[in-house]
Amino acid sequence: MMEYAGAIKQTLFIAIMVSVLMPFGPVTELSAAGVLFAMGLFVVKGSVVSVILGLFESSIAKMRFFSLPNLFIIAYFFSVLTIFIEVFA
């Protein structure tokens, strides 16, 4: 249920973002062809935003992964510093 809730939240966020940031392609007259075209265009815009969002999230995860050695170096430095303080103080 938590996964479904997250997926629904992300879908609604993308739908709002598509409607606000890319408002081109609305239906000017009520006809079946116009509504189908607008729905197709909405799906295409949503897919583009989803791909961009996926690339962004994956690059953030990779940046976090590549920052782990820095965290290990800092932890090692503080552990050695603590040993020196305990031994020599």
End-to-end separation in angstroms reads 55 Å
Coarse structural class: mainly alpha
Average of the residue pLDDT scores: 86
Fraction of residues in β-strands: under 5%
The level of helicity is: over 70%
Oligomer: single chain
Record field, number of beta strands: 0
Shape: rod-shaped
- The number of distinct helices, counting runs of at least 4 residues, comes to 3
The sequence of SSEs as H and E is HHH
| Rg calc | 24 Å
Main beta sheet strand tally, sense and closure = none
Low-confidence stretches: none
Report what the structure shows:
Helix content is 85%, strand content 0%. The protein has 3 helices and no strands. Helix 1 (2-21) crosses helix 2. The model has no long low-confidence stretch (mean pLDDT 86).
Strand and helix map with partners:
Layout: H1 2-21, H2 32-66, H3 68-88
Helix pairs in contact: 1-2
For this entry, give a set of tags.
single chain; 89 residues; mainly alpha; rod-shaped
Give a short synopsis of this structure.
With 89 residues, the chain is an all-alpha fold. It contains three helices and no strands. It has helices spanning 2-21, 32-66, 68-88.
